[in-house]
Amino acid sequence: MRVAFIVLLFTLFLQAQTLRIAAAANLSFVMQDIVKSFEQSYPDIDVQVITGSSGKLTAQIKRGAPFDIFCSADMRYPDELYKSGLTYTRPLVYAKGALVLVGKNIHTLKDLQKCQKIAIANPKTAPYGLAAKEALEHMGVYEKLKRRFIYGESIAQTTAYTIKVADCGFIAKSALQAKPLQQLHAIDIDPKLYTPIEQGIVILRNNSAARAFFAYIFSKDAAKIFQKYGYIIDD
């Protein structure tokens, strides 16, 4: 009996797995619900999520950071890792992000001109920052306003700047779930003004937990959660 009990404990130990996910900062809120739903179906998998700008996460992965999955805010970084032979799968788009302008006195895009401090993610490392830059260029106001920018290294930091120090800010629509932002006004930025924010996912380490999460991300349950947070899911 004792031997059987020890064997059972050893089997359960082997079955328990830790899944480490590198996730773009814009996923901070939605990933909580995604992981909760996933773990209901896979209770033996312990999911750990590390968030940051897609560019910095990519740099960490190149240096050997022990991530199993990478959920990026764009396709450029996953594709870069894939071409470098650092992924198990090729990149696939799991959702499209949406950009919004948020501020206490923001009611139309014209109100942007009144903002003396504008929060924007670093366009060099954060896809949402690049989208904001493209939108402003299409509007013909980028050069005029760029001296007012307060740059965040990730969309999460940019969201914090929008809340605490800036008059307005360009952030991911998914961040509107944050309670402080619910006190501000938000307007959608026309998707035609920026390149579609196609967010890509890759498996970095081939294991059963990573494969299960990869499959779940493309499930109907996950799609409903993404849409709840303002993401666009193609049929």
Spell out the blueprint of helices and strands.
Elements (H helix, E strand, L loop, with lengths): L1 H14 L1 E8 L5 H12 L3 E8 L1 H9 L6 E3 L4 H8 L8 E6 L1 E5 L14 E4 L5 H13 L2 H4 L3 E4 L2 H10 L3 E5 L12 E4 L8 E7 L4 H10 L2 H9 L7
Parallel strand pairs: 1-2, 1-3, 6-7, 6-8
Antiparallel strand pairs: 3-10, 4-10, 5-8, 5-9
Helix pairs in contact: 2-9
Descriptive report:
With 235 residues, the protein is α/β, with parallel strands linked by helices. It folds into two domains: 2-97 and 196-228, Periplasmic binding protein-like II (D-Maltodextrin-Binding Protein, domain 2, 3-Layer(aba) Sandwich), CATH 3.40.190.10; 99-193, D-Maltodextrin-Binding Protein, domain 2 (3-Layer(aba) Sandwich), CATH 3.40.190.10. The chain contains nine helices and ten strands. Strands 2-1-3-10-4 form a five-stranded mixed sheet, sandwiched between helices. Strands 7-6-8-5-9 form a five-stranded mixed sheet. Helix 2 packs antiparallel against helix 9. It is globular and about 55 Å long.
Give a quick precis of the structure.
The chain has 235 residues and is α/β, with parallel strands linked by helices. It has helices at residues 2-15, 30-41, 54-62, 76-83, 127-139, 142-145, 155-164, 208-217, 220-228, and strands at 17-24, 45-52, 69-71, 92-97, 99-103, 118-121, 149-152, 168-172, 185-188, 197-203.
The top-level CATH class of the largest domain is Alpha Beta
Number of domains: 2
Q: What order do the SSEs take from the amino end to the carboxyl end, as H and E?
A: HEHEHEHEEEHHEHEEEHH
Task: Please tell me the overall pLDDT.
Answer: 91
What's the total count of β strands? 10
Q: Could you give a short account of the major beta sheet?
A: 5 strands, mixed
CATH topology of the largest domain: D-Maltodextrin-Binding Protein, domain 2
Percent of residues in helices comes to 25-40%
* Percentage of residues in DSSP E strands: 15-25%
The CATH architecture of the largest domain would be: 3-Layer(aba) Sandwich
Poorly predicted runs of 5 or more residues: 1-14
Q: What value does the Rg take, in angstroms?
A: 20 Å
- Classify the oligomer: single chain
The CATH homology group name of the largest domain? Periplasmic binding protein-like II
Structural classification: alpha/beta
The end-to-end span amounts to: 53 Å
- Number of helices, counting only DSSP H or I runs of 4 residues or more: 9
